Amino acid sequence: HVDMARARSHAAAAACALACIASHVAVHALDALPRHATLGVFDQLVWIRSANETESRVFVTTEAREILASQDGGRTLVDITAKLHGSDELDEAPVVITGTLDEMGNAASESRVIIQDASGEKFWATSDLGATWMQPCGYETAHDSNGCFAKPGAEYGEVLTYVRMHDKRPEALLVLVKTCNAFNKPADKSERDCRVSRLMASENFGKSWVDLLENSKGKIASFVDFDWAPDDGKSAHPPIYATVFEDGKAFDHATGGWDYNVNFVISSDLFKTHRVVERCANAFEVINDDIYTASPPDCESYHRAPAKHEGQITDVVLKISTDAGASFVESCFPIDLPKNGFVIYDFHAETRGPDFIAIDHVEEDATQAEAPMNELYASDESMNFFSLSMRRNVRARNGLALSDFVNVLGLEGIYIANQINWKAFADPVSVNNGDYSRFFETRITYNAGGVWHRLAPPPSSEQCGRLDDCERWGLHLHGPTDWSASEDWGSRFGGVYSRSSAPGVIISTGNVGMSLEHNDVTRVNTYISRDGGVSWEETKRGPYIFEFGNHGGMLVIAKQFVQVNELEYSINEGKTWESLPLATPITVHNIRVDPSSKGHVFIIHGETAATPWEDEQRGSHFVVDFDQVIADGKKCDKSKDYEMWTPSPPGSDGCLMGQKLKLERKLRDALCFNDAEYERHREVVGTCKCSRAHDTECQYGSERVYNVANATEWPHCEPIENLNTQCPALKGARHITSSHLRIPSGDVCTDPHSALGSDDTGGRSHHHSFFMRFMHFIMSCTVLGGVGFAVVYGVKHYELAEHIPNGVRNTINGAYDKLQETFGRREQRPAGYFEPLGDFAAEDEI
């Protein structure tokens, strides 16, 4: 009876709220949104803006190899497959390539887009966002005035990578090709010849290509990896970074794995000359103009006495340069175990160095070695000493460089992560067939990883009523691995999601209980926070996919994993929802929004059936333009429809990372729309005295211990077992506070002595300003001899708007077979010199 009374109360409140919406906002009496059918479901959708155009553009590929485009901000998608000559011959969906895109979809490379056949045989290019197209050479007609796009290295073997655009010189392109294919090599080529990789460059947007290996006149034996170097525009040609074999004999004797004879070099004249930047660096990434390299240890010692270094290389070192390669520092990580791979998180473009680095260590315990987990480390100012922030951070199983570690956009220092509970390893029998997911738990930090907390469950959650101690178990949320790592739309949960345009608002699927639920969808619901993760509400029963619009003032959602005949939207941060009927029921895969400032056009895509035998046109999308849905929509009044609020982590007295902030947000009951030019007011109203509980993290060599008997000593740090004491930087003078604490990166609190119990400055980490330079999400993985080198680039390492297109995924999955003959250095994942497979998409996995 209590539940029935509660249900009646909720229903009455909802009816009242809907009536209130109707009285404030005039809604058109629309017919159901019409369905637009395609043969295949969407594989990739790229929404792009250019300063030269008034409307954004959309490019879509489907699994049936259709190519669609919109010239009117997404309102109309038109099949352009027939315009792209030869595209009817494709075996799988092509991939859309752009330069770097920021969070607003702005393109760095002007209005240029390339569509590349996943096999690297054909390329279609546009320099005006799809108004006209350059056809592949051999497919152009007499009416084509743009010339044709030449296959790079047409006289050689396969194209190994997707084209890399230059963000400042729009005509410049790079791509890697094989010299020949060993299985059908020309008579005049040896197997050794076919192992050579050639870097090709174009400075006229693909009309012709220059072979940089030939340009080197024998000074380069083979390319391994490549990227554009920072470019000040002073040189005639754009600078290029690469890892290479310079010594042909060393290349001949390369047996696989990491190699002391691979060097990291730079050239500003298309490799007529080059300079060694870092000797022995086998893999590298450039992130916000900082350079990260991975090398075998003891490089100089090897080159002095190579015979002493025979045998397999079992570990690598990470070095960082913040001065364009003039100098490098070697990073020290406290756990003394070899490394399978790195994931680098750099969310602050304007300051040097990384924020976090996650490492997949080579664990000695078999149960731990099998577990999908990384150790998460936080950087210090020197970038020498990384402290352990979180053990057992959940990572993807399928080789993708993804971890359940998400920064909350718009607020400094707040991150949400999933962790494997230690109990999974105390009793290995409890792990069912290698499935550790029943031990996944969600944690949140408000001080950049210094202290991690459980998420407080919503007090009104349905699941709380089923648990004896709801507060004890907590709220658990899905993360990037549940979205991007899945190959099946039917298992992609919408994970932790935020936008800088709506600071403090977070939405996610998840559940209340002992651990994160993956198998029983009936236990998964949708939750929202509007105060940076301090408190949560259950906004919808069941899992939903979602997207923000209208400067964060609108949410559009659809239920996942079942066919639905409606969308829902909210203009009060999920307090109430309005329905939009669909003409045809579909299973919704994703919701995308026009990245323009207004953000009123949404594309919802999915499928009517699971297979083409059930519906030969199963691909479906709907377009909703809220300018058409809402008549005379009320614009918010700056003087009365907004409030100022202060982010306040529990017990912090309104201090976040050493500051007191006031941020503007819409009143929750203000049923209105943000103006197209709306900008949120943000004000720093003061700094805070450093607090041990809120402004500290552990020093190198220590880790947090949470079960401290004396509350005055919490948070507490204790020495790490199996500590790495061999890192070269440890040989210099380094002061450690008696408390083993330091101030986290970006924290601007005052009087650190009071928190650290020390008379020094606290080893304060490098500070980041609040304003982040938003960059398109790029992830790449370089693997040499089975050791990964993965990078999260820019402020967003997780974006619901993107997933890995099948063309990219298939290339990833097939790369080992395709490249084994090329260089013989492949283990479980594709080659390091695949650079990279998807700048144009959400992730690169190389």
Task: Looking at this protein, list some descriptive labels.
10% helix, seven-stranded antiparallel beta sheet, mainly beta, 846 residues
Explain this structure to me?
The protein has 846 residues and is mainly beta. The longest helix has 23 residues, at 2-24. It is globular and about 75 Å long. The model is unreliable at 1-27, 764-798 and 802-846 (pLDDT under 50).
Quick description:
With 846 residues, the protein is mainly beta.
Helix content: 10-25%
- Describe the main β-sheet briefly: 7 strands, antiparallel
* Annotation field: number of helices: 12
The coarse silhouette is: globular
Q: What is the tally of beta strands?
A: 52
Distance, first to last CA: 58 Å
Mean model confidence by pLDDT: 83
Radius of gyration (CA) equals 27 Å
Q: What strand order characterises the main sheet? A: 2-42-41-40-39-38-37
Uncertain runs with pLDDT below 50, 5 residues or more?
1-27, 764-798, 802-846
Question: What class do helices, strands and sheet pairing give?
Answer: mainly beta
Strand composition percent: 25-35%
